[in-house]
Amino acid sequence: MDGCNTLSTMAAVTLRNTSHFPDYKLSAGLIDSCGSELIRSNKRTGDEVMTVWDNTSDEELVMLWLWHNGEAREIYRLAPNTTTQASLLKGMGIAVVSKARERCFYNQIITDQSAAGTAGRFE
């Protein structure tokens, strides 16, 4: 089954795995690639939801948590050619970026809708 992601390739990560989210320095080129201003988290986040992220590219992608105060923190790394299930909080501002290409693939707030299926598919 070419192109099929199975449960064996799905990694699960949760916010409970760690409380350490390192600062992430956003370059001007990376910010420009998002097409608009980075969307920050709501000041108060909501309930935990499970999201699915499908990275079909050959490079590792970085998921950033965009705090309401303007800080950007690295929260997860999405391995190449894998599907990752991640717990996030409703209201979190999330960006998914390619560090190597300085490209932004995702720049949104997590909602019930983004948790209902695959939140992001990156090629």
Explain what the structure shows:
The protein has 123 residues and is mainly beta. The two termini are 18 Å apart. The protein is globular and about 30 Å long. It has helices at residues 28-33, 112-115; strands at 10-13, 48-55, 61-66, 72-78, 82-89, 93-98, 103-109, 118-122. It has a 4-stranded mixed β-sheet. It has a 4-stranded antiparallel β-sheet with strand order 4-3-6-7.
Gist?
By secondary structure, the chain is mostly beta strands.
Instruction: Please give the share of residues in helix.
Output: under 10%
Widest sheet: strand ordering: 1-5-2-8
- Alpha-carbon distance between the termini? 18 Å
Kindly state the number of beta strands. 8
Q: Please, what is the average pLDDT?
A: 82
Principal-axes geometry comes out as globular
User: How would you name the oligomeric state of the polypeptide chains in this document?
Assistant: single chain
Task: List its traits.
123 residues, mainly beta, four-stranded mixed β-sheet, four-stranded antiparallel β-sheet, 41% strand, globular, disordered N terminus
Blueprint of the fold:
Blueprint: E1 10-13, H1 28-33, E2 48-55, E3 61-66, E4 72-78, E5 82-89, E6 93-98, E7 103-109, H2 112-115, E8 118-122
